[in-house]
Amino acid sequence: MTRWRLIELLGATIAVKLNHFQALVVFALVISIAFGFLGRRRPKDRVKYILWTLLLFVLIGVGIGWAMYPFSH
Amino acid sequence: MSGEEGLPVSPPEDASPVPQPQEERREAIALVVAAASWLVPGLGHALLKMWGRAVICFVTVGVLVWVGAGMRGNLFSSRGNDAFDSLGYLADLGTGGFYWVAKSLETNGPDVSRADGDYGTRFLATAGVFNLLAALHAYEVARGRKV
Do the domain assignments include residue A2? Predict the structure, then answer.
């Protein structure tokens, strides 16, 4: 469940509440785009790199999550 | 200096590379670019007229800091208790000017008793490490080693 409890755009206080998966996707998306722009020059290469990195981030993250699942019970 | 047959021997050309003034100037500019890139994410790339990368660096560090602070992640200070605190401080300091932005955003202080706070700590550290990587990239471009 996503809840942006309080966002005071012009103020100093913000509060962000994301679940595990949402945090993972936000992180993966931001870092993939940044790596794509830093690591590749041509737009086509960038798009391919961003999509590939995003996919790997999410899949490996979920995979590690499932691998650790038995240890949390 | 003379050789075995009495002929003068000149020293090899690349035996002691003396930095040319142009090289020194380029190195100085690269250092300034790196420092600017660290202080304000994206500024180094902007100085090199790499506008897309400049915007991406600024937005990436900004979003990571904003989300990290919003999740009440721990922003390490210089008064760390152990090596991990010191490493965390170095990572956070990597965000440059955004370190103080994160400090001002976290008016309620960190809360790592919940998973959100823990994630926020990682977001903040990642922002710093990414900015250091971007500064290194800008430095290498300014030196002419990367494009």
Answer: no
